[in-house]
Specification:
106 residues, mainly beta, Phosphorylase Kinase, domain 1, 7-stranded antiparallel sheet, two-stranded antiparallel sheet
Length: 106
C-alpha cells in the first residue's frame, strides 16, 4: 500500500489528541491505511479521508485555508508535485463518513 504525505506529514502517523479519561492519561486518535484513500490522475489528486483527519490537517496548517497557497505532496516517499486545494466535499449519505478533497498540481 502506498502512503501519502502532505506538507511533510505522513497521514498514517498523525496522532490527534483526545480528551483524557483521567487527568494522568494521554490518548491519541489515528487512522489506519484503509481509511485513507487517494488516486492521482494527470495533474489532479482526489483524497477521501475521515472528517476528523481533515479537520486536523487544517488545524495543523498542513492544508492551508488560503485557496491560493500551494503545498508539496509525496506518495511512498516520492514527491509527486506541488498542489492547491480546489474542492472540498462532505458525504451525501449518513453511511459514508469520508470527506473528499480535490487538489490540483501547479
Amino acid at each position: 500500500m502506498k502512503g501519502i504525505s502532505i506538507n511533510g506529514a505522513k497521514l498514517l502517523e498523525l496522532q490527534m489528541p483526545m480528551i483524557p479519561y483521567l487527568n494522568q492519561t494521554t490518548g491519541y486518535l489515528s487512522y489506519p491505511q484503509n481509511r485513507i484513500n487517494f488516486h492521482v490522475e494527470e495533474n489532479e489528486m482526489v483524497l477521501s479521508i475521515p472528517p476528523l483527519l481533515a479537520l486536523e490537517l487544517y488545524r495543523r496548517g498542513l492544508l492551508p485555508q488560503d485557496e491560493h497557497q500551494s503545498f508539496p505532496i509525496h506518495v511512498s516517499g516520492k514527491r509527486i508535485g506541488i498542489f492547491k486545494v480546489v474542492d472540498f466535499r462532505y458525504p451525501n449519505s449518513s453511511f459514508d463518513d469520508s470527506v473528499t478533497i480535490t487538489m490540483r498540481s501547479q
